[in-house]
Specification:
With about 350 residues, the protein is α/β, with parallel strands linked by helices. About 45% of the residues lie in helices and about 10% in strands. The strands form two sheets. It has a six-stranded parallel β-sheet. Strands 8-1-9 form a three-stranded parallel β-sheet. About 45% of the residues are buried. The mean pLDDT is about 95. It binds 5'-deoxyadenosine. The site of 5'-deoxyadenosine (5AD) has 12 residues, from loops.
Length: about 350
Amino acid sequence: MNNKELIDKLYKYNSLNKAELLYLLNTINNEDKNYLCEKALKTRTKYYGDKVYVRGLIEFTNFCKNNCYYCGIRCSNKNIERYRLILDKILECAEIGYELGYKTFVLQGGEDPYFTDEKIVEIIKILKEKYSDCAITLSIGEKSYDSYKKFFQAGADRYLLRHETATKEHYEKLHPENLKLINRMECLKNLKEIGYQVGAGFMVESPYQSNENLVEDLLYLKELEPHMIGIGPFIPHHDTIFKNEPTGTLEKTIIMIALTRLLLPKSLIPATTALSTINSNGREAGFNAGANVVMPNLSPTSVRSKYSLYDNKISLGDEAAECRDLIEKKIIAAGFSLDTSRGDNIAWNR
Ligand code: 5AD
């Protein structure tokens, strides 16, 4: 089968086997890529029309007890200024977001021991009480089943936890020994079981990544069936051991987004900040490859530059939640429409 036939098969059945995916990734050319994106866009349109959902991202702490080798806010980086937003500040962000019309708040942070389960539960409860028509998404890393359950019972609706890479050997090259892929996968399984809408995902062209690794990511996602899938290029951070590694490319990231859309047609896929950071048209290219979510930054502007996962991370213009009109304009200019509803996965029933 040639690549065009493989893409047709993927479009029709939303499935390809390992050998087929690897062949496609190893041999895909520019013409194939355009065809792949065309099919991915058609698939996203079939399920989600031209809608782009919007989430307000509140990066509420850059303290982290982990030491992921690629990440700028890892604990051993002594060169960044740490901050955490106390409850009142988080509420202020949410209020600004609500006024702007956002109906989903994503609370993202490093794994910060200051925010005990009790504190997180309190934040969720207060937010849910004030904004019962909004979805609350957590993105605060690996926790126990019981903690996840407590947050869910307090009212959290969704949880984002990228698996980062589904290959054990590769995972070990990106993380210190205390962080294990099986724990990560167990967390994702638990989150699904508890009833969250779950987001997984991975970086594209992270150090040591092979096409075989990327195929494993796709097959893992196909099996897990998360509701959301975050895919962005790896971008080096100057205070990490990967500072001299090359940045992931727009082309490869787009291919991975399109393949993901075709394998998991109903998923919610953000055009990530990392994608916009590496290319000023990254976001639009993401939409045209099947992405259907944006997550503009709702954190106080004074802390935005401190949430430095990677170098040059953008948080202004269409990455800034306060620029809602600009965001909408650019989405419309790209041929899509902004949807500020909760934006649940269409396959999801509470
Ligand atoms: N480049 C790109 N993405 C990164 N992340 C962390 N560090 C980097 C980096 N250097 C991503 C991880 C994490 C998410 C919050 O940010 O995939 O899950």
